[in-house]
Specification:
alpha/beta, 14 strands, single chain, 9-stranded mixed beta sheet, globular, 5-stranded parallel beta sheet
Length: 444
């Protein structure tokens, strides 16, 4: 069945808006189903660059209000800095638009309450894009847990590793400040908490967390500058990044810097960094299931391990995402090495053809069952393209509940928000202290 073209406005025109939403929606697979009819960014130079890169006829609007009043969009895609999400979500809902927002939904409980109250008042549709739900591996985990073979899940051990390319980039961009990103507890871990919530079919209730900064920030080495492009300390710095070597990032950020002052190549050792790079938490769910979670932002590889302990055994999963396979102390060399890998080699622990991942079920009274899951190509383990497909076709069957609304978005960020409070107050924090559950839409 031929679907009517869905008209989108992009709000926030940075890398994610262009490389994922823009290029995917205008690409050959979805161009007959989607059209970008408006762009807005608080940085007008970046918005114009995005229009040029995407080669679309859509106008660039001078203000968000103009976009809402003049654009013919059906849906607004919000990909701005995290702390601004709530403003655009609320105003778009008030304007009668459907809203699709990048995770995290927002960064604190006050902003969340504004979103939830507005959605209730307007009856508008709001979807949060949790790409990892859509991957074959995540789906297989959910399928296995739903089968009952593990029995009742009693505890979960979840460890996430960011490598020294991906991890370092959070500490050189706007994410480095809690006021912008909510910290990695919210910006990054939202993905992870949503997965556990979705896998278990439960909601978290209580969080005790610790966080420290052991690798980035704190002004070391002493000779560092404010940013890489003006720093005298380059030869010996393992994280020196020359943005002028990357034509795409230079056009999108460096050449647009005069409009808002945003530095895409800020120093990872700067004193003003206030997010954590080493994090751990203990989370209790409504059915008393316990989650132990850690995140390290300076690992030699990237990926995650997770294990589910149940009354009938243990399900163990090791999922490599990306690996820096050869030794490169210099950031530029590490980054270039990964770029030069063929797509099928990304995520390997060694060079070669990796077409699948494995999970292992250990029955409680002995033995082991290996479950092989084929790999899919594309962003976020193959989840990105499938997510777009489901965004464009609301009638597409969703037996595993991939589509996530504001309740799922709220419950994923509130673990991170409670973790921040726990670290600052040095105590266990109940999510109910911060969030009025009666504001949430019904489950389902």
């Amino acid at each position: 069945m031929q679907l009517d073209k869905r008209k989108f406005a992009l709000v926030g025109t940075g890398d994610r808006a262009i490389s994922y939403y823009g290029r995917t929606l205008t690409g050959s697979q979805f161009a007959s189903q989607a059209e970008i009819v408006g762009l807005y960014d608080r940085n007008p130079l970046r918005a114009q660059t995005a229009k040029r890169m995407l080669a679309v006829e859509a106008p660039v609007y001078d203000s968000f209000d103009d976009l809402m009043q003049q654009s013919l969009c059906d849906s607004v895609i919000v990909t701005t800095m995290d702390a601004a999400h709530h403003h655009y979500i609320v105003e778009a809902l008030k304007s009668g638009k459907d809203v699709i927002t990048e995770k995290p939904l927002t960064t604190n409980a006050a902003f969340l309450n504004q979103i939830l109250a507005t959605q209730r008042q307007t009856g508008g549709k709001l979807q949060v894009t949790f790409n990892y739900r859509y991957t074959p591996y995540a789906t297989k985990v959910r399928e296995f847990l739903a089968s009952g073979k593990l029995g009742t899940v009693t505890s979960v051990e979840f460890h996430w590793f960011l490598d020294t390319i991906h991890g370092a980039n959070y500490f050189r961009r706007w994410h480095r400040r809690i006021e912008n990103s909510g910290s990695l507890w919210v910006h990054k871990a939202t993905h992870h908490f949503d997965l556990v919530n979705w896998w278990l079919g439960q909601e978290p209730r209580d969080v005790f967390a610790r966080g420290t900064r052991k690798f980035y920030g704190d002004g070391a080495p002493p000779a560092h500058g404010i940013r890489c492009s003006t720093c005298a300390y380059t030869e010996g710095c393992p994280f020196f990044f020359d943005i002028n070597e990357d034509a795409y990032l230079k056009q999108l950020y460096q050449d647009a810097e005069s409009a808002d002052g945003y530095m895409r190549d800020a120093c990872v050792y700067a004193e003003d960094i206030d997010i954590w790079d080493t994090m751990s938490a203990s989370i209790q769910y409504e059915d008393d299931t316990l989650l132990t979670y850690t995140l390290h932002a300076y690992a030699p590889f990237e990926g995650y391990t997770i294990a589910f302990n149940g009354t009938q055994g243990r399900l163990q999963c090791d999922v490599p995402d990306r690996a820096v396979i050869e030794y490169h102390q210099n950031f530029r060399e590490r980054q270039q090495y990964r770029r030069d890998l063929a797509p099928e080699d990304l995520g390997h622990t060694s060079i070669g053809d990796r077409t699948s991942d494995t999970m292992r079920f250990y029955p409680i009274y002995g033995g082991v069952e290996e479950i092989v899951v084929p790999r899919s190509s594309g962003g976020h383990g193959g989840g990105d393209a499938y997510q777009i497909q489901m965004l464009l076709d609301p009638d597409l069957a969703d037996p595993w509940g991939y589509r996530a609304g504001s309740r799922a978005g709220a419950m994923s960020i509130m673990v991170g928000v409670a973790a921040r409070e726990s670290i600052q107050q040095r105590r266990s924090v109940a999510i109910g202290e911060l969030l009025d559950f009666s504001l949430l839409p019904n489950r389902g």
